[in-house]
Every structure is written in structure tokens, then in C-alpha cells.
Specification:
The complex is a heterodimer of chains A (about 280) and B (about 300). Helices cover about 75% and strands about 0% of the residues of chain A. Chain A has helices at about 1-10, 10-35, 65-100, 105-120, 120-135, 135-145, 150-165, 165-175, 180-190, 190-215, 225-235, 245-270. With about 300 residues, chain B is mainly alpha-helical. Chain B is about 80% helix and about 0% strand. Chain B has helices spanning about 1-30, 35-40, 50-55, 65-75, 90-125, 130-145, 145-160, 175-205, 205-215, 220-255, 260-270, 275-300. In chain B, helix 5 crosses helix 8. The chains are: A mainly alpha (about 280), B mainly alpha (about 300). At the A-B interface, helix 4, helix 5, helix 10, helix 11 and helix 12 of A face helix 1, helix 6, helix 7, helix 8 and helix 10 of B.
Amino acid sequence: MADTLRRLRRNPSAVAGTMLVGALVLAGILAPLLTPYDPAQQSLMEVLKPPSLAHPLGTDQLGRDILARLLFGARLTLFMGVFAVGVGMVIGVPLGVISGYYRGYVDMAIQRVMDLMLSFTTFLLALALVSLLGVGLTNVIVAVGISTIPRFARLVRSSVLTIREIAYVEASHAMGARDGRILWRHVLPNAFAPVIIQATLSMGATILTAAGLGFLGLGVQPPTPEWGAMLGEGRNYIFSSPYVTTFPGMAIFVAVLGFNLLGDGLRDALDPQLRGAR
Amino acid sequence: MSGFLGYLLQRIVGVMVTVLFVAITIFLMVRVLPGDPARVIAGVLASEQDVERIRAQLGLDQPLPVQAGIFLRDLVQGDLGVSARTSSPVVEEIGARLPATLALAAAGMLMAIAIGVPLGAWAAARAGSLGDVLVSTLVLFGISLPVYWLGLMLIILFSIRLRWLPAAGAEGPLSLILPAVTLAAFSVAFIARITRSSMLEVLRQDYVRTAHAKGVRRTTVEWRHALRNALPPVVTVIGLQFGELLGGAILTETVFGWPGLGRLLVDSIFARDYPMVQGLVIVFAAMFAIVNLLVDLTYERIDPRVRYG
């Protein structure tokens, strides 16, 4: 553990990623302290004002302070990311474990379902789900989360396939341990590192997808300060007030970049064999 | 050759089975997930009779197995039903929009391969140098960029500020440039990353050292000996990557008002045109499956060790 932390500290990508993600988390937590404005407060006198001292990032089409909306939006972005990846992990990891450990027909059935989900492609699957379930925060999380299940299931399956052949698993069997105990105590902990790496990288991908749905108007609905929706609404003003779209997009970019950097760094530190892969 | 034909046939059947399962899944999703399409199409103010009429019109009043039977029978005959919005056949509307999406996707994909592969190979050959670090940074930016935002930024720069290129629409080849660049960005980065890591692997091999040792020119070793052997995994990833590209196309088309399938899908979702959404999802999945088949077929040309049959 200490060894891993040392390797992480020496990894420039992990350090940069930690700083960006840390900044994002702090922005979300400290939002009310960092801005005097309410993200929902409209002001007809202050519509579409370019950046100024009073409004460092300008105001939007309803006179709301863009910086305030971005800061409060950071909470939402992290919330959606964490829960969507959580949905993907909670369903995907057990599926992968079962698939890899029991093999045979169960494995084949699970893998065919994963293939089917992948043949929809990630974004289209999320889009189709949200268009049928309806828009809104919970449905976006469910839709985006479901679309990430195959990544976890595949990854864990391949780790488990390797781990189950290792001598100590055979030893547990020989000592009469039950499947559940073997899976929980011996197999799962060893499949942990790649899952953490994948979860971090998936945070980036998930934030992109969720914001993409918001941009199309099929994500979290206004007046919630969701970054993608802010971009989508600001689009109508790009000729006169480009900053309304520039800043939310930058926020999404920086957040995704942070998680991608951190994921790359974790991979290098936790799993030297995977270096340069993906 | 008969081995190849057999393989081809097997793969084509595989594509058809995939599309069939996708079709059944989306069919069930539309009907089983919460939400009543007929009521949504009718609107909140509609009377119970109106809802019933629309339900009958969509065939949703039939028992599920009957609906499924009709759906599959029509599907096999290439009939995807009738749009709830325009009342014209779904297949016709999709056919009219397909060329625009194919042009965009092809331009984006070709651009991604033409830039991504050489960029990745070049960086690998100079691993650790300033150029390599620069490429890796660009790659990281590329995979973190929201396509929809990149598109808008390109519009602000090239259409509004510089007035070089049109901001929207699909008139003439000039209007393809910005959407194609937008769509390609993520794939350029992703392909460059995969090429770089595959190339790094190959450059460590003994035969590369041997080639260097016997005095073959460095560029020849890199581009002729190494790159060729680094390509097979890259080709596989390019096929899988096409799925991401299709997702990106939906967003790119919306940004640029490109008259393709992606925009049709988004418009149809807003109009609650379920038959159209259903048909489009099937067509997208079919395109993805077909591209992956084509990619696998080029494999043999790149890696003669792979023989089909």
C-alpha cells in the first residue's frame, strides 16, 4: 500500500489527475463559499453580460451567474459520475465474477448478453434507455450506468479466469472452502486493482456521456445547473455571447481530463503490466 | 477459397443474428419499460378514445407475442413500420438520411486513421522524447474533449470569427470539413494511443534489433518492418472504435444541423416517434456490425498469418 502511494506520488499523470479531481471536489463542496450568487437566481437586468469583476465568467440568457452555475454543477457532475459508475460496477462486477468463475453455460449466456449490449454501442444504449425511461437525474444515472456494465463484466471475467487457476484457490478448494467464501476472500480482492482503474477511467467517459445527453436536452432538465444542459442552452447564443458555451464545455473537459489522468496514473502505479495498454 | 466463402457466409449470418437480437431487444424495451407510447403520442389532453385509437394504429393493442410475430415478419421483409410523426415508411426516411451519415462517418474515420496511425507510430519510434510527450498530451486532450463542445468552438473560430467555413447545413464539400474534424478528434487520439502502444511492443522485438544491427535504415525499420507488425491490434480497435464514432455522430450532427440519421434520431425521440426510434437503433447497430465485419475481412491482407476457414 505504502509502495503504491509512493509510486502514485512519483507519477506525473497521477499527480496532475489528483489535483484536477481534487479541485473539482473542492469546487463542489465549497460552492456556496466561492460565489455570492445563487445558481438559480435570475436577473433580467443582467442577461448575457460578458465576463466582468461582478460576474467573472459572465451571465447566461436568464441573467444567472455562470460561475455559480458551474460550481454548483460540479456537485451534480460528480454525483452522476459516481452513481452511474456505481450502477455499472454493482451489476457488472458480480456478472464478471460469476462468468469467469463458473464458466460453461452461465458464462456463455452472460457474455452473449454483454455482446448484445455492446452491439448497441455505449452512447446509443444510454440514449435509447433515457428516451424510453424519460429524462431526469435518476433515469440518466440508470441509463448511463447500465451502458457501462459490459466494461466491468468483461474486465472482471478475464481477471477471474486467470486468478481461479492460481494454486491458492485450488488449495482453498482442497481445504473444503465453499464457492462463496473463495470468491469473496480470494478471487475478488485480486481482481480489485483493474476494477479501480476501470472505474476511474469510466468516471471520465460517464461524465462525457451524461453531459452529452444533457446537451441534447435529454439529460437532467433545466433549471438544474448541469454542465451539458448549460452548453445545449447556450448554443443559441454563440454568435453574440460565446462565453455562455465556452465555460461549461471547459469545465466538462477539465473534469474528464482529470479522471483520465488519474486513471492512467493509477494503472501505471497499480498494474505495471498494463503500462501503455488500453 | 471455399474456406473463405464459408467463413464469409458464417460471419454474414453472425451479423444478421446480432441485428435480429438488437431488434428484439429494442422492441421489448419500447413495450416493457414504464411509459405508454400511445398515451405519450396522444398527449396529455387526449381523450381515452384517442389513446385507444393510436394504440390500435401502432398495433400496441395486440397481445405481446402477436406484436412480436408481426414485427419480426415485417423486419425480415425489410419493413420497419411507419413513422408516427410523418406516416411515411421508416425505411424510406432512414434511406433518405443514410448517405449524409455515411459521408460524415467515412470522412471522420478516414481522417482518424490517416492522422492517428502515423502519429502514434511516430511517437513510439521516439519514445520518451519531447515529441512523444507532446503526442501523449494531445492524445489525452483528444479523448477528454466533449465532441459537442469542440464542434461549437470550431464554429466560433472558423465560422463566426474567421468566416472561412459554414457553421451549419450540408451544402458542398466545404460544409463537411468542420463536422468531420469534430467527429474525428476523439478517434484520432484513441487510434494514436493504440498504435503507439502496439508499436512500442513491436520495437522491442528481436527482429527489429536484428534489422538495426544489419544496417537497415532506421526509417525503413520503423515504417516497413515494425509498423506492419504493429497494425493488427490497431485494426481491431478501429472496428470497435466505430461504435464510439457513431455515438459521436449523433452529437456532431446535432451541433452542425447535419441532415443525417443522428439528427433524425434526436428529433424522433423528442417527437416520441417510437417506430422511427426503434428503426434507427436497429440501423445503427447494423452499421456497427457490418463495419466490424469489413474490418475483420481486411485483417488477412494486413496479417497473412491469419487464414480464414
